UniProtKB/TrEMBL annotation:
GO terms for MF: DNA binding
SUPFAM superfamilies: C-terminal effector domain of the bipartite response regulators (SSF46894), CheY-like (SSF52172)
BP terms from Gene Ontology: phosphorelay signal transduction system; regulation of DNA-templated transcription
Keywords: DNA-binding, Phosphoprotein
Organism lineage: Bacteria, Pseudomonadati, Verrucomicrobiota, Opitutia, Puniceicoccales
Signal peptide boundaries: none
Keyword match Magnesium: no
Protein name per UniProt: DNA-binding response regulator
HTH luxR-type domain span: 148-213
All residue ranges annotated as the Response regulatory domain in the record: 6-126
Positions carrying 4-aspartylphosphate: 61
Length: 215
């Protein structure tokens, strides 16, 4: 029997919050764990009754009344460390994207995504993956390629190329084809760069590398 994914939403726009609720309830493998218009209300509910809410995936808007949604990420991660957070926002500022990733979100999508894309993103992060809106991936890549890498960059040239391809949203098999490498070799480069950057996924690798000026 397929396990149902419990999804909690934090979105201040009433119409869009209802749309998200309808989207989740229309998926056969998802259930709405909770829906909140303010970050403070969501945090309070998680503090009081986390065992009942039990969210596996949290959809978080950044533009919330009172406090920026970014500020809730560390709090939510502490309250429900097993939950995956997807930022779902209108904000395409790549600095916000990188900051959210640095704080541990598993996905960052713009609100123009389709219902199917929301479903796929929820399923992807629930399985341990990461998702970044392709339009934001291109912005991140522009940052990656706009600066000079320092002399003490621990990443090899191939590792940097693999990281750039990952930031663009390519799967490892596609990267292997693009760089004319074997899948095994790409996988090895990925593991090596994760170890060097002390991260566990591509989103964190991109954010860490940019923050440290490595690429």
């Amino acid at each position: 029997m397929q396990q149902v994914i419990r999804v909690l939403t934090i979105e201040d726009n009433t119409a869009y919050r209802q749309s998200l609720q309808d989207t989740i309830e229309a998926a056969p493998d998802m259930v709405l764990a909770g829906s909140f218009g303010r970050g403070e209300d969501a945090v309070e509910a998680l503090k009081e009754d986390c065992s009942s809410l039990r969210p596996r995936v949290i959809l978080l808007d950044l533009h919330l009344p009172g406090r920026d949604g970014i500020s809730f990420i560390p709090v939510i991660k502490q309250l429900v460390p097993h939950a995956e957070i997807i930022v779902l926002t209108q904000d395409d500022n790549y600095l916000k994207t990188l900051e959210a990733i640095r704080l541990g979100v598993s996905g960052y999508l713009l609100k123009t995504v389709s219902i199917n894309e929301i479903w796929n993103a929820i399923r992807e992060v629930e399985q341990g993956g990461n998702v970044i809106d392709p339009r934001l991936s291109r912005l991140v890549l522009n940052v990656l390629t706009s600066g000079e890498a320092p002399d003490d960059n621990p990443l090899s040239e191939r590792e940097r190329q693999v990281l750039e391809q990952l930031a663009m949203g390519y799967a490892k098999k596609e990267i292997a084809d693009n760089l004319q490498l074997s899948f095994h070799t790409v996988n090895r480069y990925s593991e090596n760069l994760y170890k060097k950057l002390q991260v566990s996924n591509v989103a964190a690798a991109v954010a860490t590398a940019i923050r440290k000026g490595l690429i």
